[in-house]
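BUG: 3D viewer hangs when loading the predicted structure for this chain

Environment: internal workstation, default settings.
Expected: structure renders.
Actual: progress bar stalls at 90%.

Input used:
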Amino acid sequence: MPISLFPNCASAGDVSDLLFSIFFEIPAVFYLALWFFTQLFSGTMALAGPQQVGGIAWWAHIGGFVVGMLSCWFFVKKTEPPNAT
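Structure tokens produced before the viewer hung:
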């Protein structure tokens, strides 16, 4: 088994995500959806892989994203529009 300093380094994907967001102006909703589905795909592939690689970090990102989106409804104040009288 070869020894590697960075056996599961995914920095190439992080760099491409960063450069994509810098050079292309897209709404945040689309970028968040792209990020979410990238995490979901990677987590699923980690589970379906032939080796026991874990993949807990992918699912932690997915869980944090879902909890963060759901908690927005609890922490964001709902303001009523001013009366037009």
